[in-house]
Amino acid sequence: MEKWSLMTIAVLLALTVRWAVSLGSYSGAGKPPMFGDYEAQRHWQEITYNLPIRQWYFNTSDNNLLYWGLDYPPLTAYHSFVCAHIAKLINPDWVALHTSRGYESQPHKLFMRTTGFQCSLHPALPRPHPYRPWALPDKVANIWCSLSVLIKIKNVISPRTQLKLSFAVTFLSLLPACIKLTVQPSLRGFKFALVSCALSFFLFSFQVHEKSILLVSVPVCLVINEIPFMATWFLLVSTFSLLPLLLKDELLLPYAVTTPAFLAVCLASFSILEKTSAEDLQLKAFSLALKGYTSWFKSFPRIVRSLFLLSLSLMGILSVLSAALPPPQRLPDLFPVAVAVVSCLHFLLFLLYFNVVILWDSRNRGQKKIS
């Protein structure tokens, strides 16, 4: 009973924080003609309510795909459809075809926040939106955007070749985890494979948006009890990688409050700095496989803690610089690019780590197989 009481308090506290954050600004507020992601979500309600299903994804006189065309899978479209019917009951102007474009009001903001309130508790939310890093000036923390600092790939190879390259690298990067899960299926292995595969798609996919890192954060939350230190570290980096978007939407204050609060909760709840041994990080089997190098693992906890503190310091410095200083005129994207590259380097290390945990996990052999 005590366990359920603590869980209830934790959930209510998290929901309270989530709602408090929602009182802040939103993407594209008062910025015509596109108005940002907020308008995209509202417009999809307008489209799904007023148009037949067969027209939702096609360009018509009533559905200009250049104005926030619906580009999410059908399940999301039906979610917008349900929300639109509720919006219609409250205020028909919110979803009126054509005339509701750019609609903004406090009651509507409350409604939109409520529809998104159900999503999750992670401080980096809300919701992802797919764009194309090859073509658009997004500063995504994946390998392709980070490599563009050194070499403009789109100027070297054709779009078709880019697509094939992206597919090949993505497939190869997720193959080890998938093979291990197939050979030794288990619930634990499945959770870690989810993390590895989601991270592979984020890092190497042809089409990805900054907020797609949230699709990795969700499965990471599933393993936070097993590897609290690395999971906390990953979730902090994933939030940091969204800093340019948060600054763009004037969400610096929620970022500055919730990120340290999340770290403090993890320090208090999981004692993460005390769980940095090879065994705590699920790397004991890997260390034994190295045989002659096992002595190096005696200093492993100290090295990991030092890297963690260095990482926090670097993210803190970049956050302050991004928020407080204007970029040099010759390098207007200096800070967003720096955030993307630093985050990408972290994610590559995390991908390596999760694959090592998966491939050297001997405990899967003794677990009951998934039927």
Protein architecture, described:
This protein is mostly helical and 371 residues long. The protein folds into two domains: 23-116, no CATH class; 123-366, no CATH class. 58% of the residues lie in helices and 0% in strands. The protein contains 14 helices and no strands. It has helices at residues 2-21, 37-50, 74-90, 106-116, 143-147, 159-183, 187-204, 214-222, 228-240, 243-248, 252-270, 284-289, 300-324, 334-359. α9 packs antiparallel against α14 (334-359) and α13 (300-324) packs antiparallel against α14. The chain is globular. Residues 1-22 form the signal peptide.
Topology (SSEs and partners):
Elements lengths: L1 H20 L15 H14 L23 H17 L15 H11 L26 H5 L11 H25 L3 H18 L9 H9 L5 H13 L2 H6 L3 H19 L13 H6 L10 H25 L9 H26 L12
Helix pairs in contact: 2-3, 6-7, 7-8, 7-14, 8-9, 9-11, 9-14, 13-14
Produce a short descriptive summary.
The chain crosses the membrane at residues 165-183, 189-206, 213-240, 252-273, 307-325, 337-360. 58% of the residues lie in helices and 0% in strands.
Sequence of secondary-structure elements: HHHHHHHHHHHHHH
How many domains?
A: 2
| DSSP helix fraction | 55-70%
Shape: globular
The N- and C-terminal alpha carbons lie at a distance of 32 Å
Look at the structure and give the mean pLDDT: 87
Beta-strand proportion = under 5%
